[in-house]
Amino acid sequence: MISEVRLEKLGASHAPLNKVVMNAIRERILSGEFAPGERLVEAKLSDELGVSRMPVREALRALAAEGVVTIEPRRGATVTTFSDEQIREIVEVRATLEALNAKLAAKRHDKQQLARLEQIVAAGAKVAEGTDPAQLHEDNASFHEALASAADNSVLRDLVRSLRERTALIFAPHSKKRARENWEEHAAIVRAVVAGDAELAGLLAARHVHAAAQALPAGAAAAREQADAASEPEPRPRRRSGAR
Predict the structure, then answer these.
(1) Residue 37, Cβ neighbours under 10 Å: how many?
(2) In this structure, are 74 and 145 located in the same domain?
(3) Residues 97 and 47 grouped into a single domain
(4) Mean pLDDT of all residues in 34-40
(5) 79, 100, 122: which is the final residue of a domain?
(6) Whole-number Cα distances in Å, 89 to 27, 41, 64, 70, 210
(7) Which of 33, 117, 217, 240 is the most buried (most CB within 10 A)?
(8) What's the domain count of the chain?
(9) Same domain, yes or no, for 50 and 128?
(10) Rg (Cα) of the chain, in Å, rounded?
(11) For residues 162-187, b (16+ Cβ closer than 10 Å) or e, as one string?
(12) Which pTM does this prediction carry?
C-alpha cells in the first residue's frame, strides 16, 4: 500500500519534475514496495504519481543509468536483479573504493569536514531498527557523501556514488536488521579518520561494506563468502603523526 506521502500528486510539486518522479520511484524500490524483477509500468506509475508518462519515462531511464532499473526491448522497465556473482563483484569494488575514501579522508584531515562527519554520526547513533527503509538509505547516503567530501577526490566520489546506488538496491531490503550495527561501524570509521590512522580507517570502511554483504540471505552465497574472507585481525590504532 502506498503511503500518504506517496499518494500526493507530484505534478503539483515546484521541484524539477523529472527529479521528483525519479526520487519517488527510487524510494519505492529501495523500500521493497517494488521487488527485484518486478515490472515498472509507465501508465500505472503516471497515474499513481499524478504526472504524464514523459517524466516517468525519463525517470526510469535515469534510474537505469544508475543500475537500479533495467530496461529491455519489448519488456520495458523492471527493478534490477543481481546474480550472486554480480553481487560479489559489486561488493568487492565498492569495499575497495570506500576504503580509499576513508584513507584519503584520514590523510587530508580537514577539520571542518571531520566535524561534519562527527555530527552525522552523532545523529545517526539515534537510529532505530524501526526506522523507515527510505530514511535509513538517506541517512546512510549522507554519511558516505560526507566521507567522500572529506576524501576530497571528485573522481572517486562519482565512482562510489554510482556503486552505492547499486548496493543500496541489494542491501536496502535488509537494512533494518543491522541499522544499529551500521552506525556503530560508521562511528568506528570516523574515530580512525579523526585519529589520522589511514590504514585502520581503510580497513574498517572495507569491512563495513563486507559486513552488509554478510547480512544478506543465504542465497547471496558469493558475497557472503567474500565477506567472511575479509574478516581478518584488526590492527591496533595508530595516531596520525603530528595530530593533536
Answers:
(1) 10
(2) no
(3) no
(4) 91
(5) 79
(6) 24, 30, 19, 18, 12
(7) 117
(8) 2
(9) no
(10) 19
(11) ebbbbbbbbbbbbbeebbeebbebbb
(12) 0.74
